[in-house]
Structures
1.
Amino acid sequence: MKTAAGGVSDVVPVSLNGDAASSPDRVIETIHRGILVGRYVPGQKLIEADLTQSLGISRGPVREALKRLDAEGVVELTRHRGAYIRSLTRQEVLDILEILEVLTALIARLAANAVARDHNAELVRDAFEWLERFKDPALENLAFNEQRSHFYDTLIRIGGNSQLQSVMPMMRVHLLRLQLESYFSPEDRRDRVDEYASITDAVLAGDAMRAQRAMRNHMRSMHQRIGRLPDEAFARRT
């Protein structure tokens, strides 16, 4: 598995939403944020002592947070090895894609139905214009992942379904992207951007069925790409 070097000494001991948070919640937010910015990657060990020192809390809340993250599927706790950012098996990745195909098709359909309201079309265009820049292979994978998240967040927001954000398994999606992105070729990235262009065109046209179909086609193409990746890209469960 490919992992990045680095520990947890630069975590930020604040609540991401600006509110006072319980100690376990602060640990969870810190680890979530670390995944989003690429500080933590699949297979990386989390050191309890580093987290307690960085956040100024005791081991109890850290251990509670790690148990909750284990239940969430973000961290893997083992009795003798400690806590690691979870690496996904090939089957786990395919299972996530199966869920995403259904959810993202709904996201695209709702966005197409709502695109004519307010300034929604402008928001979609802006999100895709940023994404389109990543046809350039010189741009970093992490930034590409962040912009893809922004694209989906934009579609969810204009679609108006308040429950979709909580239903989407976003942390596991981020883990999937961090784990696999380096295995895709520049041609794969360009093809994905072209697929996002098809989704964007359908959404901007207000064609809900075409938007839904374009999103499903994108997810099925991702399924095929992942099927071609080597075994070393995935975790092995014993």
Note: Confidence is low (pLDDT under 50) at residues 1-20.
2.
Amino acid sequence: MPKSTFFRLPEERRARLVHEAIAEFADRTYAEASLSQIARRANIPKGSVYQYFEDKLDLYRWLLTEEAPRLKRAFVGMPSPEGDFWTRFDDFVERGMAFLVEHPRLARLSAAAADPTANPEVRGLHKAICEAGLQELRAVLEVGAERGALHAPDLDVATRLVATIIGPGLTDVVLQELGAELHEVLASDSLRKRLGPKRRRALAHQAVDFIRKGLGSGKPERRKET
């Protein structure tokens, strides 16, 4: 995790270091990425990086488990507790797809950690962020359950099933449609442009409709009193 000196950096310098570190780890494998390159890209002495992080793994761990998820949450947001739950969940899924399109480097950063040939410590980090993502999704579905919008006798099981549909399942649909592998999509502006807002909304709606028919209670929602 970052040392206190990192947080004392001027905001502009700190943001530049984070930006270039994300770029380095997204453009190269963990083994190929280097602190020297990050320092060069950020226009700072290499030794300065060690004033802010213990080593390369420490920096990568923070980016993968703290900074990237924070940036994604800021972009995607959480479904509003107001209004129809399934409509809000539909928007939530579409924003998740939009994140891949508009922030490919952050998506590549996470995808690289899932590579079975990656450093075992790196693969362990990927498992940790997946579990954290499941907990966030569970909190979203819990709201739907409390409002009576969905029926899930075991919310943990439901969360993993829903995560599979809107994660690997929806990704597979997109890749089949584009006729490309994930790394090709994340590296190609032209491929990502084919996944425009209209198509994302259509795919998100189809996925959420499938989930709703499986988990929907079929009863009117219990609205929050204002």
Note: Residues 79 and 89 are 6 Å apart (CA to CA).
3.
Amino acid sequence: MSNNIITIDGPSGAGKSTITRLAAQRLGLRYLDTGAMYRALTLHCMRKGVKLDNPKAVAEAAGGANLRCELALEGPMRVFLGAEDVTDKIRTQEVTRNIHYVADVFEVRDLMVRMQREIGREGNLVTEGRDQGTVVFPDAALKVFMFATPEVRARRRHAELKAKGVEVSYEEVLEDISRRDYLDQGREVGALRKARDAVELDTSQLTPEEVSEAIVKLAKSRLMMRTRKVERPKP
């Protein structure tokens, strides 16, 4: 598998984070949550009092953020702003509502793509996001596009938020997911798209364990196919 890079793209609430982490652990690869990177920059801009509807101000603030990610074979990725671990602090509804302002800025996406490709230079990576298979790693060995109905995704996200003690209604979460879908698909740079060679997985009726197992099987099958091509003797 070329560089052992697997990309998993899909809309908000499709289960990418949980499933990508499970698949990475089972394959013995590193896990990259690119959404957490955009969330961290959003938190940074909010703390700086940046006018989020001002792309130039957002780009300047994001460029000055000391963003750092720690990837591991076990456990979630940790995200830092300077020396501060903000892994949990970026998961608020306020950050979620404002992330599109930051993610829509061309300079920010360019910065993130370069950072993500630098992380991917070592290979051995399962990465999830919106544009991983189409923009960041177009030559990835395996590309997966996950999806589920908005209602299913809203129920999942609502349950996650309730488990964390966040008071929010299902209707609010559904409205937020529908808005995120519209913004993600209409973004000029890094829009949510399925790569032409991506494998589609509908997760609506599947558990995270079932989806991650399907990805593991796909990855191992792809690795075997590529290994055979390399080992095939010349005529």
Note: Strands lie at 5-9, 30-33, 67-70, 78-81, 84-85, 125-129, 142-147, 199-202.
